Amino acid sequence: MYFQRLRDLRKDIDMNQTQIASLLFTTQTVYSRYERGILMIPVEHLLILADFYNVSTDYILGRTNNKKLR
Q: Can you give the CATH number for the domain in which 37 is found?
């Protein structure tokens, strides 16, 4: 599964993969693999990113187009 939304959210705030990887205490290579869908993103990292971007996990996963849950 390719996570285009992860890439879009990251680019929207002008951050690079290394900066986001640092937030997750991982490497740029691992984070890049999340964005490209080569590695499944762990729930812990998904929750951190959802909080960081202030969006729902469903939005990141492409299950909804609404950034926030009601």
A: 1.10.260.40
